[in-house]
Amino acid sequence: MPEACGNSAGSAQPPGVHASARIRAGHNGRTTTVPLLHSDGPFHLRRLRPRGDRARVSVIGAMSAPLGGDRLTLDVTAENHARLEVGTAAATIALRGPTTAPATYDVRLTVGEHASLNWLPQPLISTRGSTLHQTCAVDLAPSARLLLREEQQLGRTAEPPGLLSTRLTVRCDGRPLLDQHTLYGEPANAWDGPAVLGPHRAAGQLLVVHPRLDPGLPPLLIEDDPTAGHAVLAPLADVPALLITAIAPTSARLRRLLDTGLAHVLAATA
Asked: Which of 11, 56, 68 minimizes the C-alpha distance to 32?
């Protein structure tokens, strides 16, 4: 059960819900199985029908979260040779809640030898008055494959966003592959200036790690209309990985840009 902490003067714990959920997929020699689904707090985990030899799990929100003061953790492991896809049933909405304390949402992804993980959540929406610190830490074995998508929508319709801090760290065989930090919303500096988002309110990225990728591929600009958003596909240094970074006026437009970039990547691994 999640641990809910109150605001009483004698409480030693900060306010909010503290919850941790876990997913573990393995391979039994014939197919991928999911022997561990541990739901907790706002996380309700549900097995979906497999797609080919890939097991699938959906994360369904069981309550409004993350609210101010919440401490949420989701741990996903694809063991050796497992093939797993994890997504969310709906967008994650960061809300202010009964306290102005920040919320944290930490995702940990571990991918074993010759295993494959698709982490494909729906967008994260930062609403007025919310403060959320989100991290995603990925540990990959040398032969692991990863497809990771992150999308942020800054504010709902005609609404300014809250303060959103995100950090993505990826390690392969213990070596740093990517460490990226973004900060959006007031009082962050220049987040809506021309060097960052400008008028756009949707941002995202898609990371592909695959042994058949050519790290020598040149960067590619995907649609450079400044009013409709644009994306850049770039290889990471000395590793078989490609990163697509995009900004757009809407989350729907952002998804189209990322999907276009992914089509280029799939063509490169065919």
From this structure: 56
Residue of 65, 86, 66 lying closest to 75 (CA atoms):
86
Secondary-structure percent of the chain, ordered helix, strand, coil, rounded to 5: 5, 50, 40
- The DSSP call for residue 70 is -
Domain-wise residue ranges, the chain: 17-192, 199-270
- Location of structure tokens 């920040």: 102
Measured distance between the N- and C-terminal CA atoms of the chain, rounded to whole angstroms: 45
Whole-model pTM: value is 0.91
Q: Is the peptide bond before 187 cis (omega within 30 degrees of 0)?
A: yes
Structure tokens at 129: 């008055």
Number of CB atoms found within 10 A of residue 159's CB: 14
pLDDT digits (tens, 9 = 90+) for 88-146: 999 999 998 888 889 999 999 999 999 999 999 999 999 999 999 999 999 999 999 99
Diameter over CA atoms, the chain: 61
Cis geometry, peptide bond prior to residue 121 (ω within 30 degrees of 0)? no
